[in-house]
Design brief:
Layout lengths: L1 E8 L9 H17 L4 E3 L14 H4 L2 H8 L3 H15 L2 E3 L3 E6 L2 E9 L5 E5 L5 H8 L4 E3 L7 E3 L2 E5 L8 H9 L4 E5 L5 H18 L2 E10 L8 E2 L4 E3 L11 E4 L6 E5 L2 H6 L8 H4 L6 H4 L7
Parallel strand pairs: 1-2, 1-11, 2-3, 5-7, 9-10, 10-11
Antiparallel strand pairs: 1-15, 3-5, 4-5, 5-6, 8-9, 11-12, 11-13, 13-14
Helix pairs in contact: 1-4, 6-7
Length: about 300
């Protein structure tokens, strides 16, 4: 299976930007991924906030107003990515959309669109400091998700971890125990430290679970948006660091102006590698759950 992770550039707000311009941009980006042979394409977290550029400055410069405004575009968003998934015969992880759940509350929801017209989603489970501060700032509340899913991408089981979620081992392990072989990570980071944390989280989850991880990122600057103002990091595809796989765990990574990190994933070979593994963290995971070591105790000399 060939996968592609976007290093998606959010541009300075252009004159006349509207939903149709956004749709053309998605068709351009995803069309390129399909020409590169991708069956799965991953776009970044907070992709929906680019739609705020379609509204006046009083809206796009205010996060709460932006979240309220883009709800009117949720149905067109769903129709757009469903159509592109069908036309391109490709599974599309459409970054994330901040979905209203009522009473001024929103969930950071990542949709996956299938070529047959179906879709699934995963809500972000853990909130970052930025998202918690939004929640404290007034009536707008970004709330965490409360369910975890695994879904089929052709004959492969996949799961989504939205940005910060990839830094937590137990939910991803729960997905792995439900058969997950492919972890899809739409992300958005505005500092080098944040980009490093997500990258290290992706590498750790690949190592622990003997799975492939596909991470998309935002790039560029958008001073018109309080959420997408600065963006950093590289899109990448990761694998466990083991025999027959890259020593650094990196199958593909963008650099410079490259828009996609593209890699071919061999799931049969990945499963077979367990038998000759130098270490097999996925197989040895239960060892850390032994009663004698599940909790540490202080020893006073």
């Amino acid at each position: 299976m060939r996968v592609a992770a976007a290093k998606y550039r959010v541009e300075p707000r252009p004159a006349g930007f509207d939903f149709d311009a956004f749709a053309r941009k998605q068709a351009d980006w995803l069309g390129e991924a399909r020409r590169l042979g991708a069956r799965v394409a991953v776009l970044p977290e907070y992709l929906s906030l680019e739609l705020a550029a379609a509204f006046p400055p009083a809206v796009h410069a205010d996060l709460e107003a932006s979240l309220q405004a883009i709800q009117t575009l949720h149905a067109p968003w769903m129709a757009l990515f469903a159509r592109l998934a069908g036309e391109l015969d490709m599974h599309i992880v459409a970054g994330s959309f901040l979905c209203a759940t009522g009473n001024g509350r929103y969930r950071n929801r990542s949709y996956r669109f299938a070529p047959d017209g179906g879709h699934t989603w995963q809500d972000k489970l853990q909130l970052t400091g930025f998202e918690k501060n939004v929640a404290r700032s007034g009536t707008t509340t970004i709330e965490h998700g409360d369910a975890l899913a695994v879904f089929a991408v052709e004959d492969v089981r996949a799961g989504t971890a939205v940005c910060y979620d990839c830094e937590f081992p137990l939910p991803v392990r729960a997905q792995r125990e439900a058969g997950m072989q492919l972890l899809l990570v739409p992300s958005c980071t505005d500092t080098g430290a944040g980009a490093t944390r997500v990258r290290v989280g992706c590498l750790a989850r690949a190592l622990e679970n003997r799975c492939f991880v596909v991470q998309s990122v935002t790039a560029g600057e958008a001073p018109w948006s309080p959420a997408l103002d600065c963006n950093t990091g590289e899109a990448a595809v990761y694998a466990p660091m083991d025999v027959g796989l890259p020593a650094d765990g990196v199958l593909a990574m963008t650099a410079g102006d490259a828009r996609w990190a593209v890699a071919d994933l061999d799931f049969a070979a990945l499963d077979a590698s367990r038998a000759r593994a130098q270490v097999a963290n996925d197989r040895d995971w239960p060892g850390q759950l032994a009663p004698a070591i599940a909790r540490a105790r202080f020893v006073d000399r």
